[in-house]
């Protein structure tokens, strides 16, 4: 199994609407602060989520499931993302939306399986022979291309590495030059090169350069201690899905025939059940040997009522397997028909036997003053200025429609305010955009009133 080249396949999260959420905002004893971590009110749900975070951290939650249930716009998605923030980036958190399983190309269960494996981490601890230090020089040596033709090729790279104890100059293979470039290594960076695989890892910028640029979003690391050439404990955090992908790639040689073979193969190599089983076997062996440690993360399935009976059954089965993440569901539905059945209704649109094994956290509608605070925080994160009366108006709008609708009105309202030649949003701007853009409720009433004018 390849673990050296494993690239992380964590997906970019779309959390723009929740960018103000930084955590659950609990105090040391686990009680919710009135306003904390960007979250306002909803204290029971936040405290419950806090307990879940503790359980996850102490690894007592694997294979269990949680359901966030409540009306639209009551912060279910926000709380789930706050859980992710509290867990930090060492615990995998994989968000998905129920409807993602419907694709014409991939089986529904395959989508779920992939996300399941994205949410299970593996921390691999290995002692490796490495060359480590701050880069003091980086010179590619060029020669004429031996194959003829124009241009030059790189015959080797000379790299200088410095530690607190000494310096060393290494002459490296050109293939390492590529990995150096991929990691964007420059003079002044702290890196290590694995001796037997040649894999390069950039750890950060040496902190002797820390005062050089203030605005950089760089991670500064101290100059490594000890010799340049040494044994080092390397810790890698990967997910099972990362391992699947790394080992599923077509693995041909450099000769012409296998290159041709690769061209014939479909672009997307399939991850088969057999490959997954092989990987599980190796992973289990590593765990037994104490090299690796399993880190069950969180699979977050938003809008879970979009799943159908087939996927629910599959989920239920997967939750029973020995390697399972914690699954967090969210839904805003009350009793409704389970998808994929003709007439079986059930609370939250989930089959009763699955519902029976989840812990349910309720989210409740906000009071007007809580909504005012949320709007204030949101306006701040978006860098918008609002008059106090405008905030009151908007929270009233949120009371009639939903909080989400109100939050979404902020940007158009700012546009309106600019058009009117102002910089601070006033109540009139909000009333204007409220008239221009309907919320779901008003649009629905509009439809029922004028139903005969539409095509049916
Ligand atoms: N307690 C809170 N504190 C701060 N912001 C909140 C809070 N609750 C909700 N929000 C913000 O309000 C907006 C709507 O909330 P969110 O999307 O989490 O609702 P939801 O319960 O997931 O709704 P739906 O059922 O429609 O998916 C988001 O921008 C969210 O970040
Ligand atoms: Mg949501």
Describe what this molecule looks like in 3D:
It is found in: Nucleus. This is RuvB-like helicase. One of its GO terms (cellular component) is nucleus. One of its GO terms (biological process) is regulation of canonical Wnt signaling pathway. By secondary structure, the chain is of the alpha/beta class. Among the domains are: 35-91 and 297-362, Rossmann fold (3-Layer(aba) Sandwich); 125-235, RuvBL1 DNA/RNA binding domain (OB fold (Dihydrolipoamide Acetyltransferase, E2P)), CATH 2.40.50; 368-451, Helicase, Ruva Protein, domain 3. The chain has 14 helices and 19 strands. The chain has helices at 43-57, 76-87, 108-118, 174-182, 240-248, 256-264, 273-289, 309-320, 352-355, 368-381, 388-400, 403-419, 427-436, 440-449, and strands at residues 35-36, 39-40, 65-69, 93-97, 120-144, 152-162, 167-172, 189-194, 200-206, 220-221, 229-239, 292-296, 298-302, 326-331, 335-337, 345-347, 358-362, 385-386, 424-425. Strand 6 (152-162) and strand 7 (167-172) form a beta hairpin. Helix 3 packs parallel to helix 8 and helix 11 runs parallel beside helix 13. The longest helix is centred in the middle third of the chain and has 17 residues, at 273-289. The radius of gyration is 27 Å and the shape is globular. It starts with 34 loop residues before the first strand and ends in a 7-residue tail after the last helix.
